[in-house]
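Collaboration report, partner site 2.

Our partner group contributed sequences for two proteins of shared interest, and the home lab folded both. The records are reproduced in the order in which they were received, starting with the first partner submission.
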Amino acid sequence: MKPAPLRWLCALLRALLLGMLLPGGAAWAHTALLHAEPADGSVLAQAPRQALLAFSEPVTVTRLQIVEPDGSALPVPGARTEGAQVQVPIPALARGGHALVWHVISADGHPVSGVLRWSVGAGAAPAAPAAAASATPLGAAIWLAKCALYLGLFLGAGTAFWCAWNAPACTPSTRRLGSALLALGLVSALLAPLLQGADMLGLALHESASWQAWRTGAQTSLGATLALAGAALLLGLCALRGHGGRLARGAGLLALLGSGAALSASGHASTAPYAWARAAVSVHATSVALWLGALIPLATSLRRPGADAPRLLARFSRAIPWVLAALVLAGLALASIQLGDPRALYATAYGRVLLAKLALVALVLVLAAWHRWRLTPALMHGQTGTRRRMARSIAIETGMLAAVLAVVALWRFTPPPRSLPPPAAAAAKAQPAHLVLDNGQVRIDLVIAPAAAGPVSITATLAPGTVAPREVAFVLANPALGIEALHAQAHATAPGRWRADAVLIPAAGEWTVRAELLLDEFTQTALQGTVAIAR
């Protein structure tokens, strides 16, 4: 019969896996710049009065700068954000090259930045501000903080769970090491908002130690992850100090589940187009913590004479097949969401990180199989030297899994392929969509080209004999994605023909298109239809 905590966890994992199969509402993806006006690298006869940035999801602007031909950088205040579009007022510009440096925060809490360069009259655009060159040490610090948080949540909280529910097998050295890992995670949770905020504000690493940077980082969705992580880590410390009492077991169980809940509160999967992706992250993270958390108690108990190690090893052996099944199923579900196309495994940075992770995990599984089918039976039969060999091998397994966590932390810098804009070649091949709209009063032919996510043009041609409207506007909506209205004002290109250019359709799916015609000062009519937009 399984111990009580393992029965509860197996039931919870089965319930969460069942919940992953249920349909859910859509959410926004990791952001990408889809369209910009003026276009990057363009040469303009006159200085623009404003710039338009169109992203694949709603964003929050954190910093905008105009870089002059002499290299000086000017802040740009007064930007207007309407959903996924940002309108940037441009100050008076002289002739020559200019650059717009933009920093935004996406819905999943990740900062995104870029540079648009154009020239007025003639001249090359200047280089980006020197501060951008300091991104490497800041990126390294963000990666290290992520690794430390993972060690605390997975190895520390997992160790606390196993010690709380198997107190006789938990040595003082195990408690000290578990407490150190939890403390490392807490320090990381406190420092992470500083680094996140500095990245959002475009600051260098040495400029990150400020209240503004910490507050900026904590106000993103990462703040929810760090708050839950901090609670889980504190519960883990309580579990280690409780020495197996009832409160300690409850704290250990909550610390384990909290590690999964924390990582599902932000990040790539938290904004995936399926509501069950959060449950998949929780299942995956909780399974990892269960696996890693058993290794330190096992290794230390094997080095100590007595009967506690075989009993703990037997419990781990009964639980680990269920844990690995949940881990693999949740991981496959998340990979299918994030990749979208199997070719993204080798064609994108995200996919290459995933391949590196899978290669390391495969090596760990080979080592774990050797433990289960060779060393464990030998240890149960009391063969001489087996305890020492298994303890050494488990230490190697722990180090390999820590390397897996270090690789996973690289995903902080790689948007998932599903969120990347479609290649220009694919968008160019997309066929236009043709609609005939008729409300009994007006009949129009509507063309959307191309019928793919990204910038499109919408052209309305009125049937002969129709009263010429004074104004025409288009409204697009996709309630399934939470988009109620995207407005685009059309302009007349010929008698009876109106067009709106660079209309951003941020995602594929079934879209409602409504044409609103102002016929005179008192009469307005609308025509509506649906169109399928490809990725």
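Second partner submission, folded after the first:
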Amino acid sequence: MPSLPQHDPRPTRRQRQLAEARARYRFCRHGELGVPVLEALPPEERFGARAVASAGRLALEIGANQLARRGVDRARRARERVRAWAGEGGLLTRVAPGLAPTRRPTTPPASRSSRERAAAALRSTLAPSVARWSDARRPALEDRLFAWERLAGVNPLNLRRIERVPDHFPVSDELVRRVLADGDTLAAAAGEGRLLLGDWGALEDMPNGAYAGQPKFVHAPLALFVARRPSGAAPARALAPVAIQCAQRPGPRAPVLCPLDGVRWRMAKTVVQVADLNVHELQLHLGRCHFLVELFAVAARRRLAATHPIMVLLAPHLQHTLAINELAKRELLVSGGEVDELLAGTRAGSLALIRRAVEDFELGPALFDEDLRRRGLDDRDALPVYPWRDDGAPLWDAIQRWVGDYIDRYYPDEFYRAQDTELRGWLGELVDRDGAGLSGLGAIDDLTALKRLLSFLVFTCSALHSAINYSQYSLAGYMPSMPCAAFAPAPTLETPDAASAWDEMLMPPELAARQLEFFYRQSRLRLNLLGEYPRAGFSDDERVAAALQRFRRRLDALDVESRARDQHRPRSYPWLQPSRIPASVHI
């Protein structure tokens, strides 16, 4: 049974077990990442047989896909060798012209670069097990989809409502009038709360990376959107992109571009997609979920006994997180890993962005409801459809109620909290410079603050990670729609208005395939489910069991409601349906 330290009948044994845990779970500062991490993975944190088996099945699928790709590559190279030997101008033609095959008439090649042809042919080089997706056939970067991904994409936390366009983003009212072409104005949109900004300034100092001698490009764009007035052709408040500036400051290398700018507009949207995917992967996914949660997990293992009520509550939400982070340090973050070769910046720059996300973390602004208010997107009248908010808000409320009911069982008043030495030790280690070193945690000095902290952790490990991780393959697996990096700089007014200019931004085909396989693997492994808790500590106490049953019934109801909302959306957003949300960060 869970027990507070002041109520444990065997305190000496409890203290000894905690001392042993502190010897196994030790903080150290990661030499390159620069944040506190677990020094060595204890045996009890390793992946179990089920996780290994599931990962093995994924590895077989991806291995089969890689063999299929190599087979296609070998066939292509063989055709090239035959053409070099027997084709027009080949060796056979020069040595024995009479034996050379007759040249068949061919249609003129399409005016596309080799990189665009490789991207267009990507699906045909995939094994069926990996290629079973419908979104690959969608038009890449179509305006409505581009706007929708700001509300329901891999990074739905960037957009914010603004009252005026920033001075360093000189969008004119005339430009807005021409783009919207329905009489709407910049002043009207701002005054009615319909003006929204996407800002990827976190990438402003990111140095460009390189791959196989080819430079990669990453920018820090600004993008302006207007929630349109209702019309016969568009639903009320449908979001429309009106302008993009591919840097934080305007100038000849960063003009304001709009949907009337042809291929340059398409290139500007690609700049935004690259920026959004890099901020998502480095700050939101690796920083805010994986390595931030690791700090809470290590401190909890060191300071909370296994029978402490908070440890009992958190354990299912911390399952496999330390193990997957250890794997990420060995494979994902190293030289030649996905962060180095797939993403747009240098490896050092990418690691610095992860570090900044952890070091700059502040609990207050990160709470779900506070974040919505801070970004001005809690107003459903101004923005009626926002799946992250619409599905996330009732989930946040359900998690808060469950955590509150659970904590009330063990802390009937402030006196019980104040007497809990292990809780004080955990909170102290979270802010200790020699521990987790979190400076933005704030004062957790009453039960209300404690419940908010624990609700944040449960929500982050489950709903947040689910939304940003499991959407990756569907939304970012198809490279032309959302590349991990651009291979040409942002457009300027001098950039030719020709499809070949956009083609040059696309990733080489081998990286495009690696991006798809990486996000496929990320989006396929689910080892537990939100609402699943072990019997011990949850079913053997009537009050806790009753609260858990209420929570599970609420999750079931929210699943039905989310699926119903999804039927009326422009595109499906299933990532916050409770039946699909894992309980922990384990992939």
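Feedback sent to the partner group on the second submission included the following. Residues 263-303 form the longest helix (41 residues). The mean pLDDT is 89.
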